[in-house]
Design goal:
The complex is a heterodimer of chains A (218) and B (398).
Chain A lengths: L4 E10 L2 E4 L2 E5 L6 H11 L12 H14 L4 H4 L5 E7 L4 H9 L11 H4 L6 H10 L5 E5 L5 H13 L5 E10 L2 E11 L13 E2 L2 H9 L2
Parallel strand pairs in A: 4-5, 4-6
Antiparallel strand pairs in A: 1-2, 1-7, 1-8, 2-3, 6-7
Helix pairs in contact in A: 1-2, 2-6
Chain B lengths: L13 E8 L6 H9 L6 E3 L9 E3 L4 H15 L10 H13 L12 E6 L23 H12 L6 E3 L5 H14 L5 E8 L3 H9 L23 E8 L8 E10 L12 H13 L9 E3 L6 H13 L6 E3 L2 H4 L6 H15 L1 E2 L15 E2 L4 E2 L4 E8 L3 E9 L2
Parallel strand pairs in B: 4-5, 4-6, 9-10, 9-14, 10-12
Antiparallel strand pairs in B: 1-7, 2-3, 6-7, 8-15, 11-13, 14-15
Helix pairs in contact in B: 2-3, 3-4, 5-10, 7-8
The chains are: A alpha+beta (218), B alpha/beta (398).
Chain lengths: 218, 398
């Protein structure tokens, strides 16, 4: 129950660049706007998943961040699908899509609410998209806080893993509002795997210091 | 707190206070007395500012809410004005004040946390002229929670859970684990959502709304009915009520199937149920009552019946409280848990309103009449968009 937890893989997606486990995957030279940027990253990662194009920007961003960690990863050999938890947080919830949906109902002479937009007015749809892609059945939580909050992240993940409901966790911060965006995602694993497996992300302790260091990695 | 949670012994988690605000009243007793007498809270609304078609909706009485809120304002913050608060903030404040009544001072320390469960928060601010409201920043869920927290003088920054229709049960689960782990002595879980054109138009676009009050598990069920409201549960490591009821297990799962449709098999909800029972050290045969999600959409109720079948709960009395006050979204898990707790306190199985003839593939034991019967252990379940499921177990101590 009290096993220490480690960050074994991580990805950061920002305007300034895209980093996976220390390696810069894209730099800021390609950035023109958010939508094009998302498409470039999708192509760069050589993903083939047509559902991607139906997602809102929050789901697209989180999906790509998760894809960078979970693609071609022996992670899934080590855990049952129900042993993997997902905890994601942000500041704006689904406000980016709320505003888009509101545009479709505010004018009664031009009224066109659509279920395919409305469904994304819930932030946890992002978690649903990642679960569908990788058939992950474990515990979920979507939390909202003013800013990146390492303490809250550690607590929430520890509560899911400490109760034994999850053996590993995908967690992080995925924020989108208009052209402002930021994604930091981490795979969290327990001590016992340390002997058996050498992940490309190394073993950073899952603590405030590490998370702040990752967050400041600009 | 250090970086790691050091688990020693799991501390017990007790229900120490509660409140329900819905169309049926402003306190748990008011609401549940009406429910037990067979009243439901729907009215057909023809209000074009809410919906383009007439719909049965369960809405909180504006005059009662305003009167209650004024009372609280006079006592706690005579320097403030009601206009400084949104409708949802007023509902949350009224609900929290009643749940922790006269004990405010006990909860202002670092050993108390407020968790707010909501799907859309102050979404009605999107339609407002920004000038008419002093602080449009409250469209942010964390900001709204902060306003509530500072109203009561809570020292800890509130936590916001926004996980579709399982938000309330998930918030209770997180709260209970935090107390078990010794992070807090008291956690106040307050769930709330309001009805707005935003939410109603969305559900209409899904063709998910029933033209008449919803009929969970019934053969003629034809979609859900929306309701608004708040529910607050005060959880504590200390036992404070006459009848001790504990949260003894909880778990969540994801279908990994579809973002807006439930699992075809119900296996994933069944998994969450079995994990929660396992944590509570109970067998399916120990469960006396299940409060289902029971939205009355064809697919949800079908999936739930399958899940109950897989989990070995097919013959356990089950109801959906949504037939009384509709689907209250982020409040649902909290409000329906309180109704479950009330059933345990009174040893009363409450009729599932709107149910007449079974219309689900696995014939579950839907409660047809209010029945006095021992209710020692109960299970509350919920499922939502994004494929999420949640289950929580309540145990009454002798």
């Amino acid at each position: 129950m009290n096993e220490p937890l480690y960050i074994t893989q991580w990805s950061i997606i920002r305007k300034e660049g895209v980093i996976r486990n220390e390696k810069v995957e894209l730099n800021n030279e390609i950035f023109t706007n958010f939508a094009t940027f998302l498409k470039s990253l999708y192509k760069k990662e050589e993903i083939s998943y047509p559902k991607f194009y139906k997602m809102d920007n929050l789901s697209k961003l989180g999906f790509l961040g998760a894809e960078m960690l979970l693609k071609e990863n022996s992670f899934f050999d080590r855990y049952k699908k129900e042993e993997i938890g997902i905890v994601i947080m942000n500041s704006s919830s689904s406000l980016d899509t709320d505003l888009a949906y509101f545009e479709t109902i505010k004018d009664k002479t031009n009224y066109f609410p659509s279920p395919s937009v409305f469904v994304y007015t819930l932030p946890n749809i992002l978690i649903g998209e990642i679960c569908i892609r990788h058939k992950i059945n474990g515990e979920n939580a979507f939390l909202v806080s003013e800013s990146f909050d390492p303490e809250l992240m550690i607590r929430s993940v520890s509560l899911v893993m400490g109760t034994g409901h999850a053996q590993a966790c995908l967690c992080g911060w995925v924020e989108v509002l208009g052209e402002n965006f930021e994604s930091l995602l981490f795979l969290i694993e327990k001590e016992k795997n340390r002997m058996e497996y050498q992940p490309s992300g190394g073993y950073s302790p899952f603590n405030n210091e590490s998370l702040i260091q990752f967050y400041q990695n600009k | 707190m250090g970086n790691r949670i050091i688990w020693k012994m799991k501390r017990p988690v007790y229900i120490a206070g509660d409140n329900i605000v819905t169309s049926l009243g402003m306190t748990t007793a008011e609401v549940m007395d009406k429910v037990e007498s067979g009243f439901t809270g729907f009215q057909i609304h023809h209000d074009p500012s809410l919906a383009q078609t007439p719909l049965p909706l369960s809405m909180v009485n504006a005059a009662f809410l305003s009167a209650k809120f004024h009372e609280i304002l006079l006592v706690l913050h005579p320097e403030m004005h009601a206009e400084q608060f949104t409708r949802l903030e007023k509902m949350l404040i009224v609900s929290i004040q009643d749940a922790i009544y006269s004990k405010n001072a006990e909860f202002t320390g670092k050993n108390t946390l407020l968790i707010v469960s909501t799907t859309k928060g102050n979404i009605d601010l999107l339609g407002e002229d920004k000038k008419t409201f002093t602080d449009p920043g409250r469209i942010y869920l964390w900001k709204m929670a902060e306003v509530i927290g500072s109203f009561f003088g809570f020292a800890e920054r509130p936590l916001v859970v926004s996980n579709a229709c399982i938000s309330g049960v998930l918030a209770l689960s997180m709260a209970s684990r935090m107390i078990e782990a010794g992070l807090y002595d008291h956690v106040i879980v307050s769930g709330g959502d309001i009805l707005s054109e935003f939410v109603i138009s969305g559900f209409l676009s899904f063709q998910a709304l029933s033209p008449e009050p919803c009929k969970p598990f019934d053969i003629k069920r034809n979609g859900l009915s929306l309701g608004e409201g708040c529910g607050t549960i005060l959880l504590s490591s200390e036992f404070k009520k006459n009848i001790p009821i504990r949260i003894s297990g909880s778990s969540m799962s994801n279908d990994a199937n579809h973002i807006s449709g439930p699992s075809k098999t119900g296996e994933e909800l069944a998994m969450a149920i079995l994990h929660a029972l396992n944590e509570a050290e109970m067998k399916p045969a120990d469960v006396d009552f299940v409060s289902a999600h029971g939205t009355a959409t064809p697919y949800n109720d079908e999936m739930e019946s399958k899940a109950l079948g897989i989990a070995g709960l097919q013959s356990v009395p089950v109801n959906s409280f949504k037939g009384y006050w509709g689907h209250t979204l982020g409040a649902a898990g909290v409000v329906e848990s309180i109704a479950t707790i009330r059933s345990m306190e009174k040893n009363l199985l409450i009729r599932s309103a709107g149910f007449d003839e079974s219309g689900v593939p696995v014939p579950v034991n839907v409660i047809r009449e209010n029945t006095l019967s021992p209710v020692q252990n109960s299970l509350k379940i919920a499922s939502g968009f994004g494929g999420c499921n949640a289950a929580i177990v309540f145990r009454k101590l002798d």
